[in-house]
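Subject: for your reference before the review

Hello V.,

The reviewers asked for a structural picture of the protein, and I figured it would be easier to keep everything in one thread rather than splitting it across files. Below is the amino acid sequence we used in the manuscript, unchanged from the supplementary table.
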Amino acid sequence: MEKAILLATAASLCTATASVCQRLGARSNETTGFDVWLLFRLALRPVWLLGVASMILGFAFQLSALRYGALALVQPILALELLFVFGYLAVAGSRRVTVKRRDWLAAAAMSAGLGLFLFLASPSGGRLHAAASSWWLAGLVTFGVVLLALAVALGPGNGPGASRARRAAVLGAVTGISWGFVAAVIKELSSHLSDGLGAIFSNWSPYVLVVVGAAAMLLASHALAAGPLAASQPGFTILDPLAASLLGVFLFGEHIRTGIFDLAGEALALAVVMAGATALSHSCLILGADGDPSCLPAGYQAQGHREQLRKLTLDYQPADAPQGPAGSRPRNPATGSPQL
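And here is what came back from the structure prediction:
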């Protein structure tokens, strides 16, 4: 069990590192629309490629952890990813916006709530394969959710002046859902691994995995390029395992605990997650990306206030103010500034 805990923690750290590196690589490629070439541009940036390598390493650690521990043990530990991301933001974030105690509490609440839900639900059992009709339904619903999210985040009315944090949050949420669908396809593929290469490549799952995996990577790139990491990361961390668990129940007939106390605990855990998400939505890590003046340090606020007053002083002139010989405003002899 100790090996499983260490490996799962390493997986969380690697995936958090991947998010930070990919955000560093993508933040200079902000786009207000859907850009199919975004991945190709990002692939030219070493820091983004480092994030991809870290993601692959995290996946390897996760698979290794599952060899030594049950899913109910490993999955809650993976929720620590959100806290590791905030640790990176605290150390290397912008000096204008810092991670505050309430941000840590919100992230901790979301991680703890997700971990508790996964531990209490403990999906188990089920069948190896899902019916074709179920796969079509799950795929169409997921595709519809993706299209709706793209319309909300990148459609008309989401130009350069729109909220960057809102755009990143929506794209982060739909990316998490897409990754949950990718996990379901991986589960289908894994059931054929022991049957040989012929059985693997004669099945539909590896080809669908390539397509949906690339689409999920493109969505993640848009989410990371859209706005602050604090806005997109909760969607990555929270909705990925929740979507995967829901698809596991629907597609593979997995069972979750449904006793009275289990359901009450699961509902409480989700409420904690929602409370943490609500608190985080008011964080300056998110609001600061849209230029909220209340999120700037005192020095920046004072500077901004002075510049605003100066602009008002220069631009404002009463209609009946006397004009100078050249049509200029009369000057105050004491200060030299235009008289109001």
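For the response letter, the relevant points are probably these. DSSP finds 14 helices and no strands in the chain. Residues 2-295 form one domain.

Happy to draft the paragraph if you're swamped.

O.
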